[in-house]
Predict the 3D structure of the following.
Amino acid sequence: MAAAPAAAGSGAGRGRRAAATVAAWGGWGGRPRPVNILLQLRQGQLTGRGLVRAVQFTETFLTERDKQSKWSGIPQLLLKLYATSHLHSDFVECQNILKDISPLLSMEAMAFVTEERKLTQETTYPNTYIFDLFGGVDLLVEILMRPTVSLRGQKLKISDDMSKDCLSILYNTCVCTEGVTKRLAEKNDFVIFLFTLMTSKKTFLQTATLIEDILGVKKEMIRLDEVPNLSSLVSNFDQQQLANFCRILAVTISEMDTGNDDKHTLLAKNAQQKKSLSLGPSAAEINQAALLSIPGFVERLCKLATRKVSESTGTASFLQELEEWYTWLDNALVLDALMRVANEESEHSQASIVLSPPGASEENGLPHSSARTQLPQSMKIMHEIMYKLEVLYVLCVLLMGRQRNQVHRMIAEFKLIPGLNNLFDKLIWRKHSASALVLHGHNQNCDCSPDITLKIQFLRLLQSFSDHHENKYLLLNNQELNELSAISLKANIPEVEAVLNTDRSLVCDGKRGLLTRLLQVMKKEPAESSFRFWQARAVESFLRGTTSYADQMFLLKRGLLEHILYCIVDSECKSRDVLQSYFDLLGELMKFNVDAFKRFNKYINTDAKFQVFLKQINSSLVDSNMLVRCVTLSLDRFENQVDMKVAEVLSECRLLAYISQVPTQMSFLFRLINIIHVQTLTQENVSCLNTSLVILMLARRKERLPLYLRLLQRMEHSKKYPGFLLNNFHNLLRFWQQHYLHKDKDSTCLENSSCISFSYWKETVSILLNPDRQSPSALVSYIEEPYMDIDRDFAEE
């Protein structure tokens, strides 16, 4: 699934280094004293002692210094703000002062996100920096949190407009001044309090944007169960607010530790899992549970994900949100691109949109113009795409969480899959228009494009939905389910129980199910497309688990095997990720299936083609080992069957003949063991260890295990490194025992995918690790005493 999405425009990376900024301002007024004041304030900010706020200076002093330093009157304004924001204040004057401060900071923030800022490498933002340095950020936090303070038993209140001004100024300061967002993130009570400001529609978008930035840099994940009245808060969101809220949820429900990444070692993962067991559920797991306990939450997400463009919020409210985006610079690049779309289309029609600058709008935020009620269709589509991105991500994370089965049931019940099927052609996999939305510095094929990101998120969701779950048959329509039954009937094999149990009222409708639609676009995908990897992963997840002949034939009849072979052989694909996904898919498609091997031999019908195929396999066994494993398992099954059709395939298939040779198997075995070590094992390459075990388990079945170990010993000696391979293998198998004997899911996957009982896996490993040097099937029997190194501690340092 991939990891969670980064907070857009996080404040941590926006600013310039504070020390460099102070140095750049050293020449203000030509005198050193203002710089000394700034340095003292900076020191006070870091230590909490000494000069920390404007209130510690007299107004006369600040006015005098302002003449020299050009501080734009910000320290004096902060002094007045402090004086007018005390507990007994009516806040009227306070709000007027905020309105004086706001434009001084918003202009800098606007400059920060415009293209022009790239032209000046050393651009500084003195107003936002001075505002923060003289204690403005801390003062605004105190003002915003005044409602949490009781005065004579009554809670203080401040207006939504005033909260909005405070949030605007805070956000602009975060945009331009490094470190502000991190400091706010450390104020946990403030972060939790911000959620309560989302109850008002006036302050919702500003609050959500600030929270998203803060959570993006927060070291420790917040717990949603600490948010007051979370269920009521979320339940009262309209659909537009809920979609925006998903941007925040993306940060709160994804594990902060990247230990789930394929590149992280299994040693590190195991250590983290042991630690997690002692600590209890993680914050992300607690947050997922909190959301799932909210009545109707998943149902509303499914409705958002499957909503058609015509059902989206009306034009006026969308334009008002665009107005907010204009003010809230986090989305300025997106807005700029949206407006470019509108401008391009307005050349061909009168459906143009003109956004007024902040402060120039009428009471409702929209100037009176008939053009304001018209919106280009492409902009409506982009609006919906950007919402669906966030919603699909949240659903995908929930599908991979502890409550997976609960989420699966709800997603099926609320018809997410048939809903996405109906959107497939017109929205998800729509053709790019000439004015398709792209961000600055990118193109339509860039992974940053919302169009592209939506497709990838959609494919990730399908992968998570199908993986080892019987609900995968909801990806088909009724006619396609009948086809599966007919395939089983014709082959005289029992129907798959999950197919029989599928609720036909929840499957896809229309002429084609979602899986078939995916196959169609997959076969049309350009060779260099970044989608190939995700498409193959999504289809492979449909085949994972216990091998189903009917599922395989369903895909074979649609030309999937020929497409994969074309990509591997004829297009000579160079991408390692795409090759790995195609080899994995090919292995699942062909495993134990005689018809698939016949089709393979028909396509790879010359020695030249076969050599290209072998070259691709041998170029990286980490990528191709799952195919090697599936072909090896299939060969073993075919050799034990008495059937004319099978005998014909065994005699004719180049691939089966190649794998059947002992030298070929030994070559694979030697390389598979040699390319991995305990310290470098990851979720991606541990399959090499399991494939080597499959080869040896099948050898054990034929009572040839001692022969294979003896051949490995000879190969070691031929390389002039006696013991190096078998010692490494011994350590790998010790780790295998620690890793798999305590993880039920992994062991079940091994058993289902290989059709070899897990007890046989365990027995084979135990036999290989037998310490008796007299045992002909023990690794130690083939490691000479001087080269013995089997007790090494492989705990990660």
Summary: The mean pLDDT is 81. The radius of gyration is 32 Å. Residues 661-796 form one domain. The CA atoms of residues 26 and 35 lie 6 Å apart.
